[in-house]
Design brief:
The structure is a homodimer of 697-residue chains. Chain A contains 25 helices and 12 strands. Chain A has 697 residues and is mainly alpha-helical. In chain A, the strands form 5 sheets. In chain A, strands 5-7-8 form a 3-stranded mixed β-sheet.
Amino acid sequence: RTKVQILQYIILKWTMACLVGLCTGMVGYCINMAVEYIAGYKLSQTTSFLNKSRYLIAFSILAGSNMLLVFSAAVLCAIVGPAAAGSGIPEVKAYLNGIDAPNILSPRTLLVKVFGSIGAVAGGLSVGKEGPLVHIGSCIASLLSQGGSSRYRLTWRWLRYFKNDRDRRDLVTCGAAAGVAAAFRAPVGGVLFALEEAASWWRSSLLWRAFFTSATVAIALRVAVSNCDSSSCGVFGTGGSIMFDMGVVSTTTGLSELIPVVILGVVGGCLGSFFTFLSGKILRTYASWHARHGLFAKLLQAVLVAFITSLLMFGLPWLGTCTACPTESDECPSTGLSGKYKQFTCQSGHYNDLASLLLNTNDNVIRNLFSTNTAGLYRYSSLTILLCSSFFLALITYGTAIPSGLFIPVIIIGAAYGRLVGKFMTSFGQLETLDEGVYAYLGAASLLGGSMRMTVSVCVILLELTNNLLMLPPTMLVLLISKTIGDLFNHSVYDQILHIKGLPFLVEKPEPYMKHLTVMDVCSSPPVTLSATERVGNIVEVLKLTDHNGFPVIDHSSEVPKLHGLILRSHLLVLLKKGDFSEAQFCSVDFAKPGSGKGIKIEDIELQPEQLNKFVDLHPYTNASPYTVVESMSLAKAFSMFRQLALRHLCVVPTTPEVAPILGILTRHDFMPEHVLGLYPHLKANKWNRLQIQSSL
Amino acid sequence: RTKVQILQYIILKWTMACLVGLCTGMVGYCINMAVEYIAGYKLSQTTSFLNKSRYLIAFSILAGSNMLLVFSAAVLCAIVGPAAAGSGIPEVKAYLNGIDAPNILSPRTLLVKVFGSIGAVAGGLSVGKEGPLVHIGSCIASLLSQGGSSRYRLTWRWLRYFKNDRDRRDLVTCGAAAGVAAAFRAPVGGVLFALEEAASWWRSSLLWRAFFTSATVAIALRVAVSNCDSSSCGVFGTGGSIMFDMGVVSTTTGLSELIPVVILGVVGGCLGSFFTFLSGKILRTYASWHARHGLFAKLLQAVLVAFITSLLMFGLPWLGTCTACPTESDECPSTGLSGKYKQFTCQSGHYNDLASLLLNTNDNVIRNLFSTNTAGLYRYSSLTILLCSSFFLALITYGTAIPSGLFIPVIIIGAAYGRLVGKFMTSFGQLETLDEGVYAYLGAASLLGGSMRMTVSVCVILLELTNNLLMLPPTMLVLLISKTIGDLFNHSVYDQILHIKGLPFLVEKPEPYMKHLTVMDVCSSPPVTLSATERVGNIVEVLKLTDHNGFPVIDHSSEVPKLHGLILRSHLLVLLKKGDFSEAQFCSVDFAKPGSGKGIKIEDIELQPEQLNKFVDLHPYTNASPYTVVESMSLAKAFSMFRQLALRHLCVVPTTPEVAPILGILTRHDFMPEHVLGLYPHLKANKWNRLQIQSSL
């Protein structure tokens, strides 16, 4: 490439990263604003009718608006973009693992995800916008990297430089980082999330670019927040970066805090893996129900969930009792949208603590639970009711056909149980070293660790959310314990979804039994090959008869046939489409990956009989350096190679000269445990082997 | 492996990680304490004689103790462990890249590094203990992973489970993370440092283990600090985790702060790459001087540097002027070791600002420069003198034969220039949005970015050092700018040292010209092969005549010779050492990598003539699944494979059946740019190609 092209490419790469950051930051900001406005208006109307004792109208407003919002989100999601349902993090993870499932990063999905998220979150469901924002960031990155969508005729030619999978994958990784950075206002946490959870391959150059993208998000958010009036911009932290400020708490410095931390970690790990187990069951039930009854079931279920949620939000606070406001507080009962003291049906000067925890936006619930120096603010009964209802709601909501993040519900459940444990511990007197708010925080951390099984990224995200670095050591400890406990029982909640969706995810390490197999043990029948100089008719026939994506090209010019290389189906299709087979006709851009969709199909190509009888020289279009392994190679080593080098095809060649210069082609499918164990059922992994894998994972 | 063994292995792995964390934390704590006590005693003696106006005695005490401390460090380093000189980070980086240079992680090096660091830092030199602590952490990990040192007969059999390179490398990575965690009390920063700078290969399982190790360090430090009286434990932050607390500063939230941040970033990038350039020159000069004049030169130079440092520390403050103490401050003039107001030779109630910045420990200098709400505390002249002297001292000190970290001097230089810029900017009046202390902090960040070229890890380390997450966006921005600017000029200061030391470091991506070569273009002459059933005499001869580490084993049993696999020199040596060649004699532990040192040498093996004529069947000892590439493979692809899979040997096999079943073996050496460009000088990379590499790195 020329100097100018290199410079262009570099500049474009960084401009793209910057654009992804800016767009994701802005979209995150807008979603946040929209949710604050809609939910705020809804809740203020409900409260005003409550204050007038017109309870039925108040409930109708709440339930009606919730159901309407959720219904519109569900309609959007079910009709326009079904790929936008759920959290989106497993899909992004699958894409970054090399699985190019249709539509997961399409503009449609982006659109549904943005508006569906607003509907679902503003509709009061027990869902977060954090997971969807990761998906949104990735969609934006994918859209930008292909220079718009050819399907909707929105294309920007000058942005169409990233036509290879690697550049696109890199940008999507940056997009995922930007999503977390925008969702939690945690730029470093975003980079770490992309590194720990999302990406399957990582280079230090990518670390730098993801960091740049996150920094852009942080600065964009900061500018956006600083340019809007604090009253009209909803509840934001200082500098647009801290959501749940706990900066004032000081934790004690010693061993005395270890006991509660260990208890929280163990309980959180068990609870987290139990949550994962139940959510998996429910996800399967919902999925089969949706498959049987179609669109109607999806919409009905979403509306039903919205109704149940509204019922619990409005109905449960009646179980609470009114408490007189603390004398020193001048913000009780709270009149605005936020605040720890909701009046609900109490007389003036009193508050209902259960209403503060239920009849509120999710963010405010967390803020209330994390609030410090407020020991005794919430009763045992209130926290227990919150814990049960939020656990129940999180379970029935996840799996609904709407964009639904898992972070926020998990944080609420964790904070509720943490605060409950804290209340119990401090009631013993001896263990008063930690504030109840800190217990809530550590409880949230433990449940995140126990269900999502991330360590470094969750730790940094939580610290960035709460702005207190002194809590770093206990946070690390609680996460380590809860993840370890959780891993004893099952896989992380995201891995479980990958498994339920049947996505062929390649894990990092080969299974232990793969050491005992060779590549030929799993490689199917001799591959379909093409000659280096092949009749066009044969090519068309081969493409029609098989659905392989790569074909070995055999050179018959010498006395012994020789493997020349590997040609991709997509390249053959481009060749055939052109209809003229002389080399001069093509430049490298023609073979670039198409923006979106499946590209050319063999059915769309019509060739004249005289063209079919022509011969085409495949040499110039063939990848002459495919990666190869010899037939006696151990499957485990071939797996490592396939995974580390991010291959799509791996050619198996013979050790001794035989008639066939190639014995088979290994693809992702051949390495999947399901396939290998299907062939050799006696290798079925027992519990101990699984332990071994998990321990090294 | 059996269930019990698997469980043992898992438990051991985590116990090791925990032990590494505990030991590193404790060593870091002890070094810190030792430095605080020694330097504190030295400075208090100096100060007391100063106050009595007995200047010559004061200077003699200062210079004498500095020279003595540095001399003992230099003697230790030059005689006992020359590998302990310098920062140690490049050495750790090289080890983790697969370069097993002698002694870099030996117990000797560990010992020298610990005591040498104490001497050098307490001796007032412009060096830090941070780089050495990374090296110390890695040495501890290496020592533990090999279960002690066989050389010194300190072996713990029950710790000797990690006999493969991978487990050891993993633990050393954890050790590097622990080192940073102990040095800066920045556990998350430690993990990120290990990930971004130290490790060449990374798996998410490693992330988790490194996180665990760092958490152990954090908790160990916390307990250590909480169990000691605050007066006798020197100057520690709260909870043993914050060194330079800036938690009270609030930065403005808007665009106005962008201008100073950009200016600091650009200047810091230029200054950082200039520093790197100069330090490279000086390092080469020193190295050649040391090589010519030996031990004497090393010691003389160290003592000379200590003398010059003392002279500047004591002499330059005379240039300062006395200022009356601010009326509201009750800690002026400071009586203790820390404090912003040193009296020096001033009358009571006055302070000398230059003395606060020079006649102090490095940590206190940084604390003074980062101090906020103290605009006007330091004059232009004082800051300029500090900047020049610290720049000069950092340059002449680095390359001396003592353990010397680069972080602290770079932070001092950066903070000095940042504060200078801040003073200048605020004097204009319009740009008063940032505190002078924040300028100093951002200046330090920019110089770190400009010289070390790390982004995420430096960012997190700085945040953990200063406990203010609101400074995250400007810190990110300043680091990105200074790294970009620095990369335009040269490589990072650590990469430069790797290059100067001539370590064959494998970078992440192949050079662009490698695309135009095939593996056969760089592969030397046909390899030395062994037969599958080989005469012992032949093996001995081959081992004596060559220094190859791997030999292809050819199976001649079939009609056409066939490549059976690859056998390692070390395995052959174990075979020969035993003298008996029947398979039953060996178990897998025999072939494990020896703890330290070079293992068995061929010269040490004496065989009887009748043994030499025996035949040995090499089949069971051969790795039958070596990675292979075909002769027509592009060098760039082979490089990726070699690097990604962390190989030591890569076999080149023919595409068509020929007489030889193997054409060559590629090793690390064959992929080094020096070697390739030596063979094909016309491919010499021009500036633009270099830009391309850097941009993608």
